[in-house]
Design goal:
Order of helices and strands of chain A: HEHEHEHEEHEEEEHEEHEHEHH
Strand content of chain A: 15-25%
Number of helices of chain C: 13
Oligomer: heterotetramer
Distance between the termini of chain A: 44 Å
Bound molecules: thiamine diphosphate, magnesium ion
Helix content of chain C: 40-55%
Largest interface: A-B, 48 and 48 residues
Largest sheet of chain A: 7 strands, mixed
Number of strands of chain A: 13
Shape of chain C: globular
Order of helices and strands of chain C: HHHEHHEEHEHEEEHHEHEHHH
Strand content of chain C: 5-15%
Radius of gyration of chain A: 20 Å
Strand order of the largest sheet of chain C: 2-3-1-4-5-9-8
Amino acid sequence: MTGPAERVVENLNRGLHELFAVDERVYLLGEDIADPYGGAFKVSRGLSTRFPDRVLTTPISEGAIVGVAGGLALCGQRPVVEIMFGDFITLCFDQLYNFASKSVAMYGRRVEMSLVVRCPVGGNRGYGPTHSQHPQKHFIGIPHLNLFELSPFHDSSVLLNRMLDLGEPAILFEDKILYGQRMHVGGRIDELVGFDFLDPRRDHARAFLFDQDECDCLVIAPGGLAERVLAAMRELFLAEELVCQLVVPAQLYPFDIEPLLPLLTRAGRVCVVEEGVAGGTWGAEVAASVHERLWGQLRAPVLRLNSVGAVIPAAPELERATLVQKSTVYNAIRDACRA
Amino acid sequence: MTGPAERVVENLNRGLHELFAVDERVYLLGEDIADPYGGAFKVSRGLSTRFPDRVLTTPISEGAIVGVAGGLALCGQRPVVEIMFGDFITLCFDQLYNFASKSVAMYGRRVEMSLVVRCPVGGNRGYGPTHSQHPQKHFIGIPHLNLFELSPFHDSSVLLNRMLDLGEPAILFEDKILYGQRMHVGGRIDELVGFDFLDPRRDHARAFLFDQDECDCLVIAPGGLAERVLAAMRELFLAEELVCQLVVPAQLYPFDIEPLLPLLTRAGRVCVVEEGVAGGTWGAEVAASVHERLWGQLRAPVLRLNSVGAVIPAAPELERATLVQKSTVYNAIRDACRA
Amino acid sequence: MSRALTEPAPGTSQLAERDLERLLLIRHFETALLRLFAEGKLNGTTHTCLGQEYIPVALNALLRVDDFVLSNHRGHGHYLARFADPEGLLAEIMGREGAVCSGVGGSQHIYREGYLSTGVQGQNVPVGVGVALRLRQLGSGQLAAVFIGDGTWGEGAVYEALNLAQLWQVPLLLIVENNHIAQSTPLDAHMAGDIAGRARAFGVRYHRVAGIDINRIRVELAEVVAGVRRTPAPAVVEFDTVRIGAHSKGDDTRDAETVAAARARDWYTHYERAFPARFALADAAARRFVAELVVRVERRPPVGRRP
Amino acid sequence: MSRALTEPAPGTSQLAERDLERLLLIRHFETALLRLFAEGKLNGTTHTCLGQEYIPVALNALLRVDDFVLSNHRGHGHYLARFADPEGLLAEIMGREGAVCSGVGGSQHIYREGYLSTGVQGQNVPVGVGVALRLRQLGSGQLAAVFIGDGTWGEGAVYEALNLAQLWQVPLLLIVENNHIAQSTPLDAHMAGDIAGRARAFGVRYHRVAGIDINRIRVELAEVVAGVRRTPAPAVVEFDTVRIGAHSKGDDTRDAETVAAARARDWYTHYERAFPARFALADAAARRFVAELVVRVERRPPVGRRP
Ligand SMILES: Cc1ncc(C[n+]2csc(CCOP(=O)(O)OP(=O)(O)O)c2C)c(N)n1
Ligand SMILES: Cc1ncc(C[n+]2csc(CCOP(=O)(O)OP(=O)(O)O)c2C)c(N)n1
Ligand SMILES: [Mg+2]
Ligand SMILES: [Mg+2]
């Protein structure tokens, strides 16, 4: 491999291009996704030019668009929907909860419903209270609705295919902060940190410090937090000689804890990090599962890190102080391990 | 007290009448709530006749109705919204998430937003997949959005006042199965079981077996499950000599665990029961908190009971087998305590 | 018998045997449901289309077998007009073996190839646009037929979908059964303006059907439906109709006068008056058929019972 | 100078000093924002109303101080036309002390008594109906003025709210700034039919404003606005207008011709041509004022910085 790796947004864009090229059943629906605009975050660049019949730029009608996707899925097609800001997926809740996911099973037989809703989420970009949230947790635990999160470890092409092969609706949450970051490839992040996958499906990426066998703290975090946690990991090692490992799952729900069990058993402490605010979170769910599966084997309860439980302010310094940052992770793990 | 206690639906109806009579800022908005129909579950009976200007029967526009309530709240009024079936609160998600709750804080100062959304929820009534769900968990962890559940222990008049006094939006989930049940009053449920409250605010009702000091299992469950858990409690005692206590909180989120700590410390086991399916639930959140607060003091991980993770079927036998029943609670607690 | 009762009432011409049978099947099927409810043999909710049966029966002849029908909460008639399967539907509603959706869906959630119903108002319109979008691409002349009531125009989803349908020129036939009431709320309390205006606002073709004569309705609508297929383009067809029975089970709180006015428009009475002898025969046969069907289905074991 | 440039352009009459000042304040305020963005001094997003400034300035004279304005994502002009507080708004957008919402809301989420903006399309119409419902009950002649764009008619919430507004006869003034584009999507790709038809579909009074002459607009709308208060009843007022700049920051992908056509309708050019001397003076003053304002606000500490 020569030159720097692709940016995440390039990887995602390429993944979509590949998908469209090989599968005529794939559609993209969303606001302002047509060229030359190519979507608010440029993820759909070039698609409408190459595949004009299957790339439909829409009015501002999030709810109906997901309904349309449901109709296409019923006809055996494979629609992908882009919600411009994940915060607006609130407007699609009914179609996802009461129609698309329900249809898989509520008619007494399995009705295949392949559809993916893509949602740019997250803060640290100064977009303010209604354009910066992490709504993931509100969609957990809906039968037949699958949740994924974009990551710099997981190739988008593989991921999108996997999601569309489920025969059930899925949401892909894409932390906006990722778009400009580089993908990690080849098992090596830098001279200090490598990565591999814990399962044959390559669902769980695991980043580790080279030449360190121990693990003071196993951190579980979705893709958007990877860089912040990696930075904290490096610093915890260099400044505190604390060894962390990071697991980044592609699929958040249903969550497959099995491949993590050996690591969990060996780790002194377990920490789950999310950018969303606490309360009914994915992290709480993971924590409860870890407690159940490792009862009596953990040194301390799972450390749950979330952003401050408040509205996300627009002003940069206020926003930074509200959201989980590298320093949040660093301080919490240091304190927990030193306690 | 002579004669049987009020039914829960009567208590709720009376609570609303009292609210309207003393507070001119209170409104009720909802579909088919006007007399003589009085709402799909008859909760609003008589209100439109007595207070025609403030009881507004609406078109089928759940999203807009909650938006209207937001506007009234901005003007210092105190709207109550009835969503005919809680399953349709999905249509109000945006107004609750991105407007009503956000407005309390996103303008940099506190903006009082008193509004209550009432949602009949739950199954065991044969209404089928889209009219029987428990959407509570999807609303947990939204800053400034408060979640409550109706119960046979908590007087509705007190509860509604408390919710409207928050100055923040709140949702009242009302398990439909409760409407026809009797309120519990006077600290006594029957010859075997009594109840009291754990906190001065009377948030946490606690039901206990008379003359039993030990507690083999402390059950935490929202109001809709109270009768099922009480029935299991009686049977566990009579058939297995297992002593349970039941805590029914009125407020689900934010959840105040403090008043429960003494009980939790003394109980051998802790069990959280919900009718909703597993995954990102209130129960997982409570379990995670219990594990954190009682680390090293519990005999076993918190036992989490949920309905089968599936769509809720319409046919009575299928539905019964899917949802948490008395027998689910009985069997799980017996097995856990005998393990 | 007076002349008025022996001659066809205004607006009722001779029905094809099959149409009369279907009409009466739906009527007696749903009357039986109400009886079963009263006897405590059914749970949940059931929305009968008493008074509206002629709508799906009239439309069915204009639909192709490969069209996709998206029905709503009041869908028994839509189903029975399209499929000769009263047994599968009754079993579904009663939760007995042989249920078309294995008892999971119940009255409001039915699916089989080319047919689907849902219980949440407004949902089916955008879904129908998605189906129609696909059908447009197939270029096969198929259409998506979506049923909604007047009250469902309260839902924003309907407008979002109508806008998309017209922008994308998809073959969507939006059938509005305007029975002038939504549950307990009369039309003028839930709708400002009218349905014609709503279609016009989106530039969507609109046709209003006032009568109950099935043959005439088909003539009236033939070109509208053909246009949806041919152009393709969406169309809104509004039926001015009446709900004779309760919204669900026995929850009718309308005053006697209103109900009487609705009953006066019942196709049943009109056809009975128009063709008394023939009608009586067919009516008795349908009654008998349904009575036997109920007995047969009731004898079956509940779905999901493990022996 | 040619005659065409010295005489008032068609549709521009003498402006009151205050109106001209406000127009130019908004223009230079937003131009400064774009500069700050380009310099990397602002984060997130900012939607300027370049070309549309005359709308809130014209309307403001028709609004009472006790009316409630519900603005949207493109709200700087709405705010500046109503409140003499460019400093509070700039501080908000820059995240500096003195910010009208303490830096929490930012460009899209502004609140002060009688004024509120939100960043999610369509949300403010039902909220406005709620406000208007309360104002109706007060019987004080106050109204709720809600601003939306053409693209926002994609949201079902708008229709749900319009239906309620007309059913309940509340004093809602729905102001539609139709700049023929939503972000990157031209009107004909996002809207079937038109806005007039939509208002008519709900029986709501409708008025279209084509020109940019502030005095004439006020005359045109005086009776419409008075009617909203007096009856009370909702009304839709559509402004046929142009977006001169990008949707947000620098994301304009329109072709040169389209942008040129928009610029040709810019009130700024027209007023400049009509009253060159007076305009130049006021323009220079506004420029200066904004430049100084930026310097002043930039010097302030960021909100929330703990010393
Ligand atoms: C989103 C939603 N809100 C409310 C309901 C409850 N509900 C079922 S049918 C109905 C009335 C529908 O009226 P209309 O569209 O006129 O159809 P009709 O019942 O008259 O056939 C209502 C309010 C629902 N099913 N879905
Ligand atoms: C629900 C929702 N969907 C999408 C967006 C992103 N967005 C912001 S402004 C805009 C275009 C709005 O167009 P229009 O209503 O015509 O107003 P204009 O920007 O032209 O003033 C879009 C799509 C949003 N803010 N809210
Ligand atoms: Mg109706
Ligand atoms: Mg626009």
